[in-house]
């Protein structure tokens, strides 16, 4: 009897051990499976990606991480969108993707891609309009950008574009970029006009814009703008003609080309709506698109009594020399002509020396072998 009881106890004890062993085995297998799964997911997430060359990926505005993951897989940037979105959202601190175009290097891992889309900087596409360009030049540049779409039907009014860099996304229309430029000028002009000096001889924001365009074309030295603006303001107050050479040039070219030569005496004497040697006050429109600094220079010109200025040297970067009286101005003009003549003679001498050196080199290269001096 006791033997049977002992046998039953042993069987019960062995059965419990078997159950425990089975559970332990299942636990080990589960851990192995889970560990293997984690290892697989991690290797997929951190391992090299399938791309073999640098490519650009676009995140559309409003795309979620899940939507972005699906598009990445569709386009061959990643191998598994589920791992990218679910595993990535748990290991990355910031898993909110930015809108824009991103450069994805060849072989980039899911981890690298997610960091780029959430923490990197999108590629920048922009159209840049330099200060002093005409609307014709600006439209030429906008039309030349093949990432933009559509067309601009006609030239906008001169001076209606604020120079600067304007971002866009590839596929945006050219008109939308132009609209940004014109809105920026409208806002800048209103703001500067509102804060202008109270006693300026200007009757409207439009007149301030016209004068700013003349100041912009007269000097390429930023620090000179308020000084040059004050000369023209002084002339307007005195009832003098502005006598600005760039206005003559605009009357000849309409802002659609460069003159590439000096102004002729006949052109100075020719009456056009833009020739401020022949007309009183301001021309009918701006002659270029002035930058914000030129607008501010006109709104807040320097306080001085200068009525004249002429280039200081042969290079525009040297700026101008100013005068209060015409005799003093004539002396400055005479000095400028001497400097210009000297610079022209120097340039001609250097060109001649370069020509002679080139001829000597060509003669030496053309000489039969053995006849050149050793």
Automatic annotation (TrEMBL):
Keywords: Cell inner membrane, Cell membrane, Cell wall biogenesis/degradation, Lyase, Membrane, Transmembrane, Transmembrane helix. GO terms for cellular component: plasma membrane. It catalyses: a peptidoglycan chain = a peptidoglycan chain with N-acetyl-1,6-anhydromuramyl-[peptide] at the reducing end + a peptidoglycan chain with N-acetylglucosamine at the non-reducing end. Its main location: membrane. GO terms for biological process: cell wall organization; peptidoglycan biosynthetic process. Its EC number is 4.2.2.29. Belongs to the transglycosylase MltG family. This is Endolytic murein transglycosylase. The lineage of its organism: Bacteria, Pseudomonadati, Pseudomonadota, Alphaproteobacteria, Hyphomicrobiales.
